[in-house]
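Q: My collaborator sent me two sequences in one message, no labels, and asked for predicted structures for both. Can we handle them in order? The first one she listed is below.
A: Yes, handling them in the order given. First sequence, followed by its structure tokens:
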Amino acid sequence: MTVERVAVKDLKLNEPVTSFFQVRNPQRRLRKTGEPFVTLVLGDGTGELPAVMWEDADGIGEQIREGDLVKVQGVVGSYQGGLQLTIQRLRLAREGEAALRDFLPSTSADVPSMLASLTQTIRAFTNEPLKRLFTSIFEAEGFGEAFAAAPAAKELHHAYLGGLLEHTVSVVRLCETIAAHYGGAVDRELLLASAILHDVGKIHELTWERGFDYSDAGRLLGHITQGVLFVEEQIEKIPDFPPGLRLELLHNILSHHGEYAWGSPRRPKTVEAMILHAVENLDGKINLFLKLARLHPDPYREGWTVFHRSFERPLFFGEPEAPGETLGEGREEL
């Protein structure tokens, strides 16, 4: 019998579910009685849902791995203010029953258009060393494909295929607006170049073949260090690249997280670095806000999200919508 897939975003409280999902973060745990149980996150391209399996935990816990596709039967309940699936039966998907690509979230924006936007920005540069640098980077084998496909994070903002590109384009556009506002006080081309490269290390930090995770190098170094190493390696290929430009470009990448507590090796010390940090932080937070409003509303309180650890609070996204309206209607879908 063919099972019609049910999307995570369409799951409702107290409804029975039989469908295929991708396994994320499976963990075998023990109750106070010493009996084992399994917790995991079930996901697809529309969202994620925490799940728990109380029975047959030893057998199931040995079978499933991160990124596996599984067929699940269970009931949607609630836990700590959000939805949770209690699994009654689970097995690995058989060959041909489900395709992995269908279960990974991806950008709804047009990838070729976003790449064209970045290309147009780069071609407009009058700073020849920066132009040569970006020509070298984007002509490198495999770079363009990785930059267009990579997520921007494992699980927070822009955590979907194409998320890195979408986040980068958004940050560039916002930086263009701010540079125009402040005029000659800002080195516009340095700022835009920094915006394009600020998260470039994520193509090395993250993996996205079976789901989103950290590479070994990503865990050991992190995307900021990896990004600086990558850009410095590319600069070495450009004859007579100005030392001052190199220093400020690398500083902007190093400091874009803003604070030591947020993993930034340096705090911003130039106007371009301050703008870049503020903009990329804003874009990440707005993307996460919209994601929570769309995928994690509080089932008991309309207009609110569930509590989220990144914001350390629930968020208010508005009163219930009139029929036919959608959250964020008129905005570009993220």
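Q: And the one she listed second?
A: Here it is, processed independently of the first:
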Amino acid sequence: MVRFASSSTKTDLTLLTLAAGRPFAARVATALGTSLGDVEERVFEDGEVKVRPLVEVRGQDVAIVQSLDGDAHDRLIRVAMLVGAVRDAGAARIIGCFPYLAYARKDRRTKPRDPLALRYVAQMLEAVGLDTVMALEVHDLPAFENAFRIPSVPLDMRQLFVECLAPALDPASLVVVSPDPGGLKRAQLFQERLSERLDAQVPRVVADKRRTGGVVSGERLYGGDVAGLQPIIVDDLISSGGTIQRTAKALTEAGARPPIVAVAHGVFGKEAGATLGGAPIARLLVTDSIDPPRIDPRDMAALEVVSCAPLVAAALGCVLKGGSISRLLGDAEV
């Protein structure tokens, strides 16, 4: 297990979650040395819900830990109700920790009159009283930070995956791969962290990706020769699996070894198991931001789940104690 240093092993914090997020939040609570507060969720005959904390929150710091995956609309309204109820009950500060943040990918207009869904989600959560928002490996960092007017705490997977992978890697035979041009910055940051950890200069390449009329294509690699190398594909999420499948195919056809894939969020759509099951993949690492992974292990023998709960717990400790998130993530502070 990857360990993250925190200024405190125990913290004065009321930790809440919905029933759907309890297994993950329990792991966060264990890492913080605390326990989960109880929450009532009641569904009425007409489909309306009521959500309220069953513990005292007045004057306390409260963290609501809940991924907004699956039935995102239902979870979003329940989280909004819980935030509002906690605010009305007199909490001193409310931190919304959403390891997987719904609508993070819809951060810009790609067609006329498109909604800016991420901004609307931010406005709703701010309106009910959220003070700080935390999320893991958001799709576009500037868009995330600009959508919210409250303090935002973006966490990333670099240190988590580098520490998991490094002991088994040969520094002389590696290459970091971005599966599309939009993820190049993410791959660059991972490459830099991996190079630092291994004390070696790891090269980087990018795969082409084009979307025309709803059809995604692109199997070219740019940035150097990958023949004989061990690729590590880095991305924020897997949904259909098509992007990873195409990139893995392009790499092996160019002479590379079957790639290692390190992805923060295993969304795994209905066809992902079939798509990825036939792909030349050596290892597929995802975090437990979506828990449990929605894929049959029999379809993906290479799947490995790495818990991000210790990172989330350490980040909450930093926010509460005024610690440095940059230092926690291993970034240089200027």
